[in-house]
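Lay summary. Proteins are chains of building blocks that fold into shapes, and those shapes determine what they do. In this project we predict the shape from the chain. Here is one chain we studied, written as its sequence of building blocks.
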Amino acid sequence: MTDPIPLSAITSSPDPHGVYRRLRDEWGEVARVELEPGVHAWLVMGYRELLTITRNEHLYSRDARNWRDFQDGTVAPDSGLGPMMFWRANVIGADGPEHRRLRRPLDDGVTSIHQRRMRRSVEAICEELISSFAGRGSADLVAEYAQAVPLLAVAALFGLDAAEGHELLRALAALFGSADDSQAGNRRFEEILADVMHARRAEPAADLTSGFVAHPDLHTDEEVLQSMVVMVSAGQETTTSWIAQTLRLMLTDPRFSGRLRGGRLGVDDALDEVLWRDPPMTHMPARYALRDTELGGRPVRRGDALILGLAAANDDPRVHTGDPAAELGNRAHLAWSAGPHACPARVPARLIARTAVDTALQRLPGVRLAVGADEVVPRPSPWTRCPASLPVHFTTPLPPPGDSR
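And here is the predicted shape, written in a compact code that computers can read:
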């Protein structure tokens, strides 16, 4: 067999699904990949195989302290993989009863979100961002819009102001890049959230931070902080990618771009198509085998890391009819993962993404991509395929009557 392909080479490929097909031809549904030089893992590409590991926490643990390559020093403590893969004292790194305890504050927090109020808040954020560039007739809908909307929306839920939200954004960009600056980005990200946590412990307010501080299932400041880290980081990066990929689809795919000119496929159809083809998390880290086993015909050793290939599993030919029209509206994708660790915030994420996409299409008349569709490339990351930029042109609005500009 050929040498393992770097995981980042898949996310940066112009045709990742073609890469998955080639990997399936060579490896089957579980392929060997490289996370960084000398560090390997299994990429789980099969729909059924992915369900197997996400639903069996007695064999496939979420606790990264079981990762053999970290235990034996193959992965350095300052590795760029750390912020995404090292153990943290939060819901992501726990199994069983401990996971359920740490999950309850997140579920309670999501349930407490007032959806109508949140929609109005997101609409106001979108309008303010668009107003900042509407007069130019051009914009980058990633840098100036898609990456700001979810962070400002989620930051507001936790009681952060806009300036703190933008600083979080810079830190998160480094964290998800898993490059040399990821550790520094992670430290700054946690510092900002810790400041808010300490402020709310001294003076509670009507926000999610205060809810976490007071929650009986969070026993220490570290657990409160790491619960905030999960909610903010997951909500930001994944929803940014969802918004950006949906806007890209609406602007480049004739099935959806027609909607701008009266076609039949709309925003909800595009949102669902992205969840199948380019889910917000392309590759989800990680599960760790608790004993030697076999998965998809591959020998998995105790301590091996297994990466959830969410995009690959969605493309598994065993779960498709071959008729795209018949599958329209099908939401059996694994974009949110599955099992006990499935995303708890699907409803607010869709609210933010749908509001952002719909507002942009309504408020930017004649919006069109300023570059060729093949020039839209993902920003570097082993985990996501968020477009690096979406430069667009649009018709500038006429000034109001009586405006001399």
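What the prediction tells us: The mean pLDDT is 90.
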